[in-house]
Amino acid sequence: MTLPTIHQYAVIGNPVEHSLSPFIHTAFGAQTKQPIEYIRLFSELGKFNETLETFIRSGALGANITVPFKMEAFQRCDHLSERARIAGAVNTLSFQQQNEQLFITGDNTDGIGLVRDIKDNQKQAISQKNILILGAGGAVRGVIFPLLACKPEQIVIANRTAEKAQQLASTFAAYGPITGCGFDQVPECAFDIVINGTSASLSGAIPEINPEIVQSAFCYDMAYAKEPTAFLQWATQANARVTVDGLGMLVEQAAEAFFIWEGVFPNTQSVIGELRD
Length: 277
Description:
Strands 2-1-3-5-6-4 form a six-stranded mixed beta sheet, with helices on both faces. Strands 9-8-7-10-11-12 form a six-stranded parallel beta sheet. It has helices at 21-32, 48-57, 70-76, 82-87, 110-121, 138-141, 144-149, 162-172, 230-237, 247-262, 268-276; strands at residues 7-13, 36-42, 62-65, 79-80, 92-98, 101-107, 130-134, 154-159, 178-182, 193-196, 218-221, 242-244. It starts with 6 loop residues before the first strand and ends with a helix. Strand 1 (7-13), helix 1 and strand 2 form a beta-alpha-beta unit. The radius of gyration is 19 Å and the shape is globular. It is of the alpha/beta class. It has two domains: 7-108, Rossmann fold (3-Layer(aba) Sandwich); 111-248, NAD(P)-binding Rossmann-like Domain (Rossmann fold, 3-Layer(aba) Sandwich).
């Protein structure tokens, strides 16, 4: 297949106007001298497939998918990477024409983005560590398999609804030591890493767990904002060892998507630095 002069990509979501992805991928393109154009693409609820088909017909080569369409994207794929299949959700699509037939390949780069931010950028070990993940939604589902691949001592998923956490843990039980529980049932062990996978802290809400659980832990919020999230403020007050937001994860998962599309891995440190500034 002959590639177009400009490689067209987009992030598709609802809402999508807040997305930093166009800035990140444009920076990656300039850095690696790849001829990309990356836009935000709003889709009405119930019209994701129509939005996607129109974008593909425009000559696009791929797309990132954000809330609330990751499950719909998963269902639309002709091929899935192993990590997308196991996660049950897709955030990166690639479009290929073969013999005049369209094939859509789905991947999930969220988990590898989180792992690289924790290990490479924050210099925190994951192997043999006790990890607590708060929340059991789609954001958490995408990161469990890559975390388990790092061979932690255990992962505990805690959620307001214990049954949902237990169901999610059972889904991944074949890949490593993982259990699920309610917020009020978190075991009183020394957690090395606590990851907030709920979106509640962006609206000021704090998971209802004992603050002693995060004492001396590396606390990571998968969300990011200009100011520290409510979860990170709470963790700091509870004497967490380190507190970090999810901006690095955002850039790292974008870098993995960029590599899937363009075959070149960009330098993430400079882009993270620009966004922090």
